[in-house]
């Protein structure tokens, strides 16, 4: 009987990357791969993965726990319930260097607070972006980097890490380790609060530049302040150029 693997991802090119590795390693000889996305992501995936349908992990926890031997989260927006993570080996491919800046937009907060950034493959427990670490890769954040330039570095680090650890991850032939530090966690609400600029706040120039770097990611509008006369949001980004 073949091993049943479930991949849940909300990013089309990452689904394609995982499928490619699954095929290259001829995993079909011993395993069957099922791919789903989170509810609400189907429209985003239509052009690249039209066959991918949504699966609510929480609502289908019992069926999932009884069906699969391995579940992989690859930029999945859902939290896995205890029933699933306690019965099935679950692995997360995370765009952050655990234990730093777990949660939402790790690259953004790594620029802002100067903590390490990178990619981590780890087993999933009941906490957000937590659990024993299988492998990780740190990236360098340069003074001229914004979140728009850091993100591709993180994606590349994730891909390289997954390529190296794909078969150990699938077969379970790996060892894990726990981080020495507790680290920190940022929620979605923390990111929304971070976006707003307080025009009355006194800050160091360096801290302000780092905040604008962290929130500059074209074509998205992130950092803003409020026009008191109209109530409109005035969006701000930064342009940084290195010149020897």
Describe, in plain words, how this protein is organized in 3D.
The chain is an alpha/beta fold and 244 residues long. 34% of the residues lie in helices and 21% in strands. It has eight helices and eleven strands. It starts with a strand and ends in a 9-residue tail after the last strand. The model has no long low-confidence stretch (mean pLDDT 95).
- Helicity, in percent? 25-40%
The residue-averaged pLDDT reads 95
Order of helices and strands: EHEHEHEHEEHEEHEHHEE
Oligomer: single chain
Broad structural category: alpha/beta
Terminal CA distance reads: 61 Å
Taking strands numbered 1, 2, ... along the chain, how are they ordered across the largest sheet? 3-2-1-4-5-7-8
Round the Cα radius of gyration to an integer and report it. Answer: 20 Å
Give the strand content. Answer: 15-25%
What is the overall number of helices?
8
Give a brief outline of the structure.
The protein is an alpha/beta fold and about 240 residues long. The chain is about 35% helix and about 20% strand. The chain contains eight helices and eleven strands.
């Amino acid at each position: 009987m073949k091993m049943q693997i479930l991949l849940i991802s909300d990013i089309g090119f990452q689904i394609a990357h995982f499928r490619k590795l699954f095929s290259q390693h001829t995993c079909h000889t011993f395993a069957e791969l099922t791919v789903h996305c989170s509810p609400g992501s189907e429209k985003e995936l239509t052009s690249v993965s039209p066959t991918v349908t949504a699966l609510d992990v929480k609502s289908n926890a019992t069926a999932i726990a009884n069906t699969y031997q391995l579940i992989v989260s690859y930029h999945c927006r859902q939290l896995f319930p205890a029933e699933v993570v306690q019965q099935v080996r679950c692995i997360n491919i995370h765009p952050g260097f655990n234990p730093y800046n777990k949660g939402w937009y790790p690259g953004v907060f790594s620029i802002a607070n100067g903590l390490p950034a990178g990619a981590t493959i780890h087993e999933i427990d009941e906490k957000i972006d937590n659990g024993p670490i299988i492998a990780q890769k740190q990236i360098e954040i340069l003074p001229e980097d914004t979140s728009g330039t850091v993100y591709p570095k993180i994606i590349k680090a994730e891909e390289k890490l997954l390529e190296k650890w794909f078969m150990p991850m699938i077969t379970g032939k790996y060892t894990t380790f726990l981080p020495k530090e507790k680290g920190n966690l940022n929620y979605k609400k923390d990111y929304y609060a971070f976006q707003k600029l307080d025009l009355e706040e006194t800050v160091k120039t360096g801290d302000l530049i780092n905040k604008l770097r962290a929130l500059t990611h074209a074509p998205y509008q992130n950092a803003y302040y409020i026009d008191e006369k109209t109530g409109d949001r005035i969006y701000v980004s930064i342009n940084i150029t290195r010149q020897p």
